[in-house]
Design a protein that fits this description.
By secondary structure, this protein is α+β, with helices and mostly antiparallel strands. The protein has helices at residues 3-26, 28-42, 47-51, 60-66, 72-83, 115-135, 175-184, 197-210, 222-234, 236-243, 251-261, 267-270, 289-296, 404-415, 450-464, 468-475, 491-502, 518-525, and strands at residues 95-101, 109-114, 144-146, 156-157, 163-164, 216-218, 276-279, 300-303, 314-315, 324-325, 331-336, 342-344, 353-359, 367-379, 382-390, 394-395, 402-403, 421-431, 434-443, 479-486.
Amino acid sequence: MKSTLAHQIWLSVQRPEYSRFINACRNPSIEQERILQSYIRENAQTEFGVTHHFDKIKSYKEFIQEVPIQEYCDFEKWIQKIANGENNILTKFQVIRFEETSGTTSFSKLIPYTAKLKQEFERGVAAWLVSLHHFRPNTFQGSAYWALSPATKPTQKTVSGLPIGIEDDREYFHPLIGWLLASIMAVPSSLKRERDAHQFYLKTLKSLLIRQDLSFISVWSPTFFLQLDDFLKSNKKEIIDWLNNQNEVKEKRRVQISALLESNFVWKDLWPNLSVISCWKDVQSAWWIPEVQKRAGDVWIQEKGLLSTEGITSIPIDPQLDPVLSIRSHFYEFKSLRNVKIYLAHELSKGERYEVILTTGGGLYRYASGDLIEVTGFFKNTPSLRFIGRENQQSDLVGEKLSECQVFESLRISLKDRINVNLAFIYPTQQETRAGYTLFIEKNGEDYNAKDWQNFIKNIEKSLFQNPYYKQAVNIGQLNPLEISFLPTGFRDQLVRFLNDQSTAKESIIKVPVLFTRSRLKSLLGV
């Protein structure tokens, strides 16, 4: 089946859900009440439901009286039971797999996935894609490249045999959609199993170059796109030699690509039908968007909505607005950053900032996501949201979600009984178009040879690799490996004075973090 026809069938399947989304946006309180009541009714006889008296809950007010706001640690005992093979724990729906994500207080978290949770993600994706077709129909005139999950990340299993992660990105969708995607995707889903980073990038670009009709690219971090472009330019000779031996590629296309690769090309030159690149554009990702635009050419860079392993919060609907709350996906609450009160979707105010609290079909109830948003407007009566960062101290350059707790634990283990230092912290640094992290050290008058320091930095990197997203980003080249830089004697005192001057707190003593974000220390470090 040709990709254009497959897209037409896919869109026709999605349009009813888009209509339901538009209707729900007109009266979000009714839709949200319906979703909440379905969760309570369906899961009343689960262990979690029995413990929290779901059978007696008739209203949202009673729901919040029985179920407090939860952190991931509050779910760990329930999730461990599921991992051990027990059923009917958080939800009556069978857990089909776990997805692994980086934790804020732990290195990784396991999130249970059910068919219902998959359906909730699909609802948001359906509304997004049909909306995109309205505004950019050319997006669906050719093949597409979807980078849905990390490459070279092997799947694992729990003790009961439940898979952690997936082997084929099409598993995120209904089987019918997965079948259609086989005709749409320019890059075969089997490439996800390629463990060698060089081969992964090489095979990805080979697949893309064969498909002259490429019209849509969907990636998470803009740095992944830049990494693909860097690889293409650095390995153009190898790619040209390969092209010249491919009978399946028409001679005209081979000549065209070879000439372009030797020139100062943009992606629009290589793929004239390329219409849209979808990627993150908020917070740290905003740094990279001008460079993506420069390398892509005359292509629209569309902002992705707020989506995490735990759930989908917002989706792009109107180019004039920030992404809109995915009102038909989950039940949402919002904790005000101004007064700490809890609000529902229809109660949000423009200009106010909130933390997103999720209740989902995967069995998370009143889950404090840590995602912070600002309400920037409304679509119908449903809020549009701008992601502004994480509730906890965290650095997320390319999706690695490196938290201060993780860095502290890595430094604590590596520094213990080994190297005496006055100060140690990690800070994001950039070299040309690729970022990474540097460990800044102020030594305590003692010196060590280069081999000692090399082993030291390797130990810290090994510890940080317990964060699956950080490890993945380094392995595929989105992040540079951890580097080390030595600070002059007395820097610690200078840093404390700097933080005191910036602080609005009344305390005269400021705790020095072990993880800083780029903007906070840029002037002091001169990087």
